[in-house]
Amino acid sequence: EKPSRSDEFPGQQHNFELTYCFTLTLLGDADKGIAVRYMHWNETEKQLLAVVYSKLIYTDYTSKQYASVAVWSTKNHHTPERFYEFNISAITCLKFSTVT
Description:
There is one protein chain. By secondary structure, this protein is mainly β. The protein has a domain at 34-100. 4% of the residues lie in helices and 28% in strands. It is built from one helix and four strands. The chain is globular and about 45 Å long.
């Protein structure tokens, strides 16, 4: 009998298994200080994940403002299906449309 996941790590309440690992590398210094802000899985096309990248702390108003959205597919972890760049400091929400 195979032990349950909770039996494999006694004393831990939560166990996580890394299924997908997406990597985004930007050219030059554009990715310095950039982090994942939001993520949303597409409810219809379940293999698509939209991710917002921007600065976490907005104290440096002298540098270029930057935010981006990458639409990833579980079929390709190395290159996003779509990539959008914005000259703004932040994107505050993200969701796939349910309208087809």
